[in-house]
TrEMBL record:
Native organism: Onchocerca flexuosa
Gene3D superfamilies reported in the protein's UniProt record: 2.30.30.100, Metal Binding Protein, Guanine Nucleotide Exchange Factor, Chain A
GO cellular component: cytoplasm; Lsm2-8 complex; spliceosomal complex
A biological process term (GO) from this entry: small GTPase-mediated signal transduction
Pfam families xrefs: LSM (PF01423), Mss4 (PF04421)
UniProt main location, coarse: nucleus
Lineage of source species: Eukaryota, Metazoa, Ecdysozoa, Nematoda, Chromadorea
Name of the protein in its database record: U6 snRNA-associated Sm-like protein LSm3
Entries under CDD domains matching the protein: LSm3
All residue ranges annotated as the Sm domain in the record: 178-263, 276-361
SMART domains given in the database record: Sm (SM00651)
Length: 362
């Protein structure tokens, strides 16, 4: 069975944890437990080998590849880029190249008098409306009706030619001309952000900069930790969630970001008073803030000064350091927290992951 590289990478992580636990046991000199751990490492290595052998592509896939059948039709189903539902079944659309047409972007700039569009050259041509799986039509604009996904209303994904009455679905429409356009189109929308150290947040995007530093509100943070089941030595994934009113996210710790489906009928009732990420830090001067740092370190203190690199000075600081120790009886990981009080502290900006200031209304 062909799979992506996720399974292989997860198996590799299992091996790393097994070796870590094995070394801890070897240091204690417990012979029977060492033999048991060796068998678990052997099984993990075999699982990893099978995952690599079955992986179709461990690095991902190329979205620019067009899969055609022998009759120049789509060999694979065509899906909506937003909700992934099927728009066309295999072998129903003909590939048409070198046919430029300006397709409007899904989202338009506020208060703009002109329509922003993207010139698409490659299309899937469909003659009959009933060949679609999930498709909807907009009202005609300048004589042209546009196609949208009937499941999530995302679009336009194509258009209906007013002359030939043929339907054209864009082969690849990103809605962006440069990487940050994707973030810009997501302003005031809820987005999902995957970060390092098995941390993810979902929140409404209010501001960002060229370094992908960003401000989110109405945030739900999820932290995933891995524990080892003492009976069958399988990994258990434990998730801890918390709600954060306002959050500064450091761009250097991001690994993945995408816009979530827009909530119907929901309005943004929170006024942030920020136009760029550092504005949120500026509004928090002389306030107590929470700072999440690398190496499982966090501090809470009163902000006195900061610069454009996010270096900052805090006073009345409570520092919390979390360390992981292995229980020698049941080999479970134990999280130990050490706290200390610091009168004045300099925090280096490149060590910061998150900054959660107090909620401010303007």
């Amino acid at each position: 069975m062909s799979v992506d590289g996720t399974t292989a990478l997860k198996s590799l992580n299992n091996i790393y944890n097994s070796i870590h636990n094995f070394i801890a046991l070897a240091e204690k000199g417990n012979g029977s437990d060492i033999a048991l751990k060796l068998r678990y490492i052997e099984a993990s290595l075999e699982q990893f080998k099978e995952s690599v052998d079955s992986a179709s592509d461990i690095t991902g896939y190329d979205t620019n590849v067009v899969n055609l059948s022998s009759n120049n039709r789509n060999a694979l189903p065509i899906h909506c880029m937003q909700c992934n539902c099927a728009i066309l079944s295999p072998n129903v659309a003909s590939f048409v190249d070198a046919k430029p047409f300006s397709l409007p972007f899904c989202r338009q700039a506020k208060d703009s008098t002109s329509i922003s569009a993207e010139v698409i050259n490659s299309w899937w041509q469909v003659e009959r409306m009933f060949d679609f799986e999930n498709i909807g039509f907009t009202h005609a604009r300048d004589g042209v009706k546009y196609l949208i996904c009937a499941n999530c209303d995302d679009g336009p994904v194509g258009y209906l030619c007013p002359v030939t009455k043929a339907h054209f679905v864009a082969v690849l429409s990103t809605g962006v001309e440069e990487p940050l356009d994707l973030i810009r189109l997501s302003l005031d929308e809820r987005i999902y952000v995957k970060m390092r150290n098995d941390r993810e947040v979902r929140g409404r995007l209010h501001a960002f900069d060229q370094h992908l530093n960003m401000i989110l509100s109405q945030v739900e943070e999820t932290v995933t930790t891995i524990e080892l089941d003492e009976e069958n030595f399988e990994e258990m994934h434990k998730q801890t969630k918390r709600q954060i009113p306002m959050l500064f996210v450091r761009g250097s710790v991001l690994t993945k970001l995408f816009r979530m489906t827009t909530e119907q009928g929901q309005t943004n009732v929170l006024s942030t008073g920020v136009e760029e990420p550092l504005d949120l830090i500026r509004l928090s001067l002389d306030e107590r803030i929470y700072v999440k740092m690398r190496n499982d370190r966090e501090v809470r203190g009163r902000l006195h000064a900061f610069d454009q690199h996010l270096n900052m000075i805090l006073s009345q600081v409570e520092e919390t350091v979390t360390t992981i120790e292995l229980d020698e009886e049941n080999f479970e990981e134990m999280h130990k927290q050490t706290k200390r009080q610091i009168p004045m502290l300099f925090v280096r900006g490149d060590a910061i992951i998150l900054v959660a200031p107090p909620l401010r209304h303007t």
